[in-house]
Amino acid sequence: MRFASLTKRHALWLGFLAVLAPLALLLILQYRWLVKLDETSALAQKVHLDNYLATVAKDVRWTYEQAERALDLPSSLFTEEGQIEHVAHYFHKKAPQGVRRLFAVGFVGEKANYLHFFDPAAGCWTEPVWGDEERDIYFAAAPWSARAKKHVEIETPSLVVEEADSRHRILLYPITDEAEHVVGLTGMVLDEGFFLSQVLPAAFTRALPKFSEDEYVVTVRDRRGELVFSNASGKTVRAVREEVKRPFSLVFTDWTMGLASRHATAAEVAHRNFAVNVGLSALLAGVLLGGVLLALRTASRAVKLSTMKSDFVSNVSHELRTPLASIRVFGELLRLGRVESLDRAREYGEYIETESRRLTQLINNILDFSSIESGRKSYHFERADLAEVVAETLKTFEVRLRQSGFVIRFERPAAPLPPVSLDAGAIAQSLSNLLDNAVKYSNGGKEIAVKVERQGGWVVVAVVDQGVGIPRDEQRKIFDRFHRVSTGLIHDVKGSGLGLGIVRHIVEAHQGRVTVESKPGEGSTFSVWLPIDAAAAAAAASSGTLPEGATQNA
After folding, report:
1. Ranges of H-type helices in 336-379
2. Residue 311 carries which DSSP code?
3. What integer best gives the mean pLDDT of the chain?
4. First CA to last CA distance, the chain
5. Mapping DSSP to helix (H, G, I), strand (E, B) and coil, where does residue 108 land?
6. Which residue, 451, 387, 395, is CA-closest to 420?
């Protein structure tokens, strides 16, 4: 039976591990997936923001590529003598916004390499006042003059950017003749203020949706890292960290654009989502694990209860077999006439009566347990002297105790006890169960003391044995149904496991308490506390107070 119980418990634990292992594997895989998702989300957000900046850079490039139309002039203006003066007309007609100055230089004729400066605001040629800007224009045009002298062929002219001096950003466009030789050069000096006030805001507005402007901080920094443009206040800009950066691709290539979230970075958002997802996964796993543990606990208790019931059937069978065998033996001796004297017949009769009472007590315990479990157990209360009830009960045990060599020391109260409302049969059954336990677990001690006394508003019946004793951690459990102490000599004694549970139920039905004081190897004292005043006892029971001097172990 015990092997079957262990097998069932092992099966439960194997089932638990069978559920726990896939759950643990699922959690590990989900965690790895969430880590990957965290990394991917942050990367995807950065790519998303970088696409914004790429769109801005493309928009700015497209804006300045339009300058090519203003600078692409007919080659005849540079090859025919005196025609270069007419370039001013084309500049005046085609000059774009955001230009501080335009210029042209021809590499053919008498005025070769002579720079002509055009003021867009005045709409005419101007005489240069040589300074840093004019010097930068001259140095930018010089390499093209050398190409013209060497008759270098340029198959497809294109816009050239010169940013050696960041104060003077110059766009150049070579003019070629039919032979693809450089015959002239046009160019413009960009207005940085116009770029910051007009070009950049328009480009960011077109690239970023309206709702995104409130979510993101845009920054543009020069080559020294100084902020030159932003859509946020200085305090906000100082607090943010650019998540993505990208330089401009045509002009202002030494400047860097930046984009950052006003509230949380992409990495922070991803980490926050990761933490939430991991927390939810852990919570769900905890709930699932709790459910599995609860199911395992329920199943374990069911297995334990099944084992206890199996032990109960086995023990009850043993308990029934012993008195029945004695009754059968003594009955056969009487029937066969093998009794030599009347005294011997009376002795056999006492044995039969004792075993019958023992058998009746066991059957009554089983029937009472069934009634208690179904809620049909009822009691008939009458005013009675508890000391007399105890004395009558002890008489029924005299023969059995004498046969086993036990001595009962009955200590009556010093003064008569007041009558107590009780069910005499039920109290006698409780005392019989306590005496039966004292005999079973005597461990060689042959004296049992039964004391009846009054303590305050209670009358107390105490059964004191010299048996094996009960461990402290088991004392609360011994009153549970089917429970039997699992250690030492106690476990080796056969019993139904119902006696003490029935004692507790009977005593509580009388508004009383049953307590135990015991130490292993030093015996046990079971005390039944019954109230003199039932109404006061009911109030004490509802408030949870114990009788004076009692320790609650049941």
Report:
1. 342-374
2. H
3. 79
4. 29
5. coil
6. 387
| Cα–Cα distance for residue pair 219/237, rounded to 1 Å | 8
Q: Which residues of 384-402 are buried (b: 16+ CB within 10 A; e: fewer)?
A: ebbbebbeebbebbebbbe
In 3D space, the residue among 428, 417, 450 whose CA is nearest the CA of residue 380 turns out to be: 428
| Residue whose C-alpha is closest to residue 146's, from 113, 179, 109 | 113
What one-letter code names the amino acid at 129?
V
Alpha helices, DSSP H only, in 189-339? 192-194, 200-207, 210-213, 234-239, 266-335
Q: Return the top range by mean pLDDT from 119-133, 166-180, 349-363, 540-554.
A: 166-180
Residue by residue, DSSP assigns 396-443 as HHHHHHHHHT-EEEEE--SSPPPPEEE-HHHHHHHHHHHHHHHHHT-T
86 Cα distance to chain centroid: 81
Integer CA distances (angstroms), 8 to 1, 205, 245, in order = 11, 73, 66
459/546 Cα distance (integer angstroms): 13
C-alpha–C-alpha distance, residues 71 and 117, integer Å: 13
Dist CA 506 CA 510 (whole Å): 7
3-class state of residue 546 by DSSP? coil
Q: How far apart are CA 259 and CA 240, in angstroms?
A: 9
pTM, two decimal places: 0.47
The whole-number pLDDT of residue 206 equals 84
Return phi, psi of residue 156, to 5°: -130, 105
Residue 548 has pLDDT above 50, yes or no: no
Torsional sign, CA 465, 468, 474, 480: negative
Q: What is the CA radius of gyration of the chain?
A: 54
CB 124 within 8 A of CB 88: yes
Q: How far apart are alpha carbons 308 and 302 in whole angstroms?
A: 10
d(CA 473, CA 482): 17
Task: List, as one string, the DSSP characters of 316-337.
Answer: HHHHHHHHHHHHHHHHHHHHTT
Q: Is beta strand 447-455 parallel, antiparallel or unpaired with respect to 407-411?
A: parallel
Sequence-distant contacts of 511-514: CB under 8 A, at least 24 apart: 511/537, 511/538, 511/541, 512/458, 512/537, 513/546, 513/547, 513/550, 513/552, 513/554, 514/430, 514/479, 514/554
Rounded distance between C-alpha atoms, residue 538 and residue 44, angstroms: 72
CA distances, 283 to each of 23, 270, 289, 290, 513 (Å) = 13, 20, 10, 10, 44
pLDDT at 234: 66
Element containing residue 452 per DSSP (H, E): strand 447-455
Query: According to the 3-state scheme, what is the secondary structure of 458-519?
Result: EEEEEEECCCCCCCHHHCCHHHCCCCCCCCHHHHHCCCCCCHHHHHHHHHHHCCCEEEEEEC
Tokens of 154: 């340029």
Q: Could you report the per-residue pLDDT of 259-312, keeping only the tens digit for each?
A: 887 766 556 666 677 677 777 777 777 777 777 777 777 777 777 667 666 665
